[in-house]
Amino acid sequence: MRGGLWQLGQSITRRLAQADKKTIGRRCFASDADLKKTVLYDFHVVNGGKMVPFAGWSMPIQYKDSIMDSTINCRENGSLFDVAHMCGLSLKGKDAIPFLEKLVIADVAGLAPGTGTLTVFTNEKGGAIDDSVITKVTNDHLYLVVNAGCRDKDLAHIEEHMKSFKSKGGDVSWHIHDERSLLALQGPLAAPVLQHLTKDDLSKMYFGEFRVLDINGASCFLTRTGYTGEDGFEISVPSENAVDLAKAILEKSEGKVRLTGLGARDSLRLEAGLCLYGNDMEQHITPVEAGLTWAIGKRRRAEGGFLGAEVILKQIEEGPKIRRVGFFSSGPPPRSHSEIQDSNGQNIGEITSGGFSPCLKKNIAMGYVKTGNHKAGTNVKIVIRGKSYDGAVTKMPFVPTKYYKP
Amino acid sequence: MATKLWASRAASYLRVSTFHRAFATVVKDLKYADSHEWVKVDGSSATIGITDHAQDHLGDVVYVELPEVGASVTQSGSFGAVESVKATSDINSPVSGKVVEVNEKLNDTPGLVNESPYQDGWIIKVEINNNDELKSLMDHDQYSKFCEEEDAKH
Predict the structure, then answer these.
(1) Is the N or C terminus of chain A more exposed, i.e. has fewer CB atoms within 10 Å?
(2) Coil vs helix vs strand at A139
């Protein structure tokens, strides 16, 4: 078997294994016993979750519903995802903002307290170490969520820079929220269902906003964000309250919000045109090439001051040589590493994610092409198992996003 | 279905995906390959498809890549592919021979492989070269046991 989520899981697991040779290197492969479990593991199993290894964790790829049905149900009703494998951390101290600004492209200082944004951790060459949603809780408290597969690498990177920052007198410290679990509640029923479980008025909380509040009797970090293109929330809940919260959400939705696994999560994010780190973004890809120039704050463009800024700012000025674009195509669904050719059969790039869209009922994909071939409507050929199929560059998101904005 | 689908690390990715249905259907008069294809032999003509067990593991089939009529297939060799929302998998031929017919209906309704793996979801018909090859295939009892063991392993 090739391609798809399997490959995604494996590639992340593989990287993790390389980063952590001490624990995994002496075995041929990570057996079930090596996999970490979230506090919801038993809850998944009881609910029919098909558990698979993912980034060193045993996570549900799907439950009893097919991936097709799960994806559609998220957009029609709602989905509850266990994303507790992801790593939440807080940076605290009066210099937390200047510290984080050295590592990411966002204008953190310019964020209003209680708001957040998608950002990218960059390396010296301007490549992406990881993508992350960061929130300015207050001027001396930042909250971040990083990818499970990048946890060790990201934490090592942050720690190294924190040491040198502190040695120069900077005031910053971190706390890794391993005492908390992360749930994602997504879809049109997310807000009405969650409103049943909190006294705070969620209608006044918009996309990208953050609050600390009481949900179902537990003190939670709530961010109005997600990875599906739908309205929704990510809820950081004390781990001892996570199962109760999951049960309460499902119950309040009268069965309409359904437990949803990694399979549908991948279809949903692809339909929403969102990058999966490790597939659509890597160490050698800059945020500009990835189409995330919008995430580089104006002040940051003027001042730089983050790792790789010289490379990135030059790319903004001159235009990148390659660009991430979306595709529709005929034939079998493109998968990562499918070759992209122009109409004359010349190689112009490679697919990084692709699949069959459950909502659009056709193939969608994203990948990188040489600049000049990136305009919507450009006809391309996508090579799958030696045969080339027709495709066309398409604007993303493939399915319109429904973020809750004022 | 390629043996690698089941034998490789991918197997652990797909494991337990049948536990809510203890036994996939296995049909009596068919022969089965360990890569989860079935073959129904009538004289020198063989109809080939993927098993209920295989379609259940793959999930919603969205595309079936068919060979050309007249193409040669060899036992255990790949002749096409099945794409589901979840994964891509090669389809191997349980017998050697020449493709005499392909199921064109799968071009428009690949989901037939899920709905009716042993009837409407057949994939190709082959003119068999060598009936002796059938001896290396499993009967329904052996195949049922094979699937159970494989699921238990993962």
Answers:
(1) C
(2) coil
CATH (residue range B29-150): 2.40.50.100
- Choose the CATH number for A321-396 among 3.30.465.10, 2.40.30.110, 3.30.2270.10, 3.40.50.2300: 2.40.30.110
Distance of CA B122 to the CA centre of its chain: 9
Per-residue pLDDT of A282-341, as tens digits, reads: 999 999 999 999 999 999 999 999 999 999 999 999 999 999 999 999 999 999 999 999
Judge whether residue A140 has pLDDT over 60. Answer: yes
- Angle value at C-alpha A375, between A374 and A378, nearest 5 degrees: 90
Element (H, E) at A129: strand A128-138
Greater confidence, A23 or B1? B1
Residue-wise pLDDT for B73-104, tens only, equals 999 999 999 999 988 899 999 999 999 999 99
- With a cut of 50, say whether residue A202 has pLDDT above it: yes
User: By a Cβ cutoff of 8 Å, what residues of chain B touch chain A?
Assistant: 2, 4-5, 8-10, 12-17, 19-20, 59-60, 62-63, 65, 81, 83, 85-90
Q: Are strands A322-329 and A362-370 parallel, antiparallel or unpaired?
A: antiparallel
pTM (2 d.p.): 0.88
Q: Where are the alpha helices (DSSP H) in A147-207?
A: 151-167, 190-195
Chains A–B, number of C-beta pairs less than 8 Å apart: 82
C-alpha distance from residue B94 to each of A120, B45, B70, B123 (Å) = 49, 13, 17, 12
- What's the pLDDT band for B4 if we cut at 50, 70, 90? very low
CATH number of A87-121+129-176: 3.30.70.1400
In angstroms, what separates the C-alpha of A334 from chain B's closest C-alpha? 10
Kindly list the domain boundaries of chain A, sorted by start residue: 44-83+179-270, 87-121+129-176, 321-396
Is there a binding annotation on residue A234? yes
Residue B153 Cα, gap to closest chain A Cα (Å): 12
- The tokens 């209608």 sit on which residue? A203
Residue A99 CB-density burial (10 A; 0-12 exposed, 13-18 middle, 19+ buried): buried
Domain boundary assignment for chain B:
29-150
The question of ipTM being above 0.85 is answered as no
Q: Which CATH class is domain A44-83+179-270?
A: alpha beta
CB A99 within 8 A of CB A165: yes
DSSP A229-298: SSSEEEEEEEGGGHHHHHHHHHHHTTT-EEE--HHHHHHHHHHTT---BTTTB-TT--TTTTT-GGGS-H
Helix, strand, or coil here: B130? coil
Higher pLDDT pick, B48 / A13? B48
Greatest C-alpha distance within chain A: 62
Token pair of A25 as six digits: 């290197």
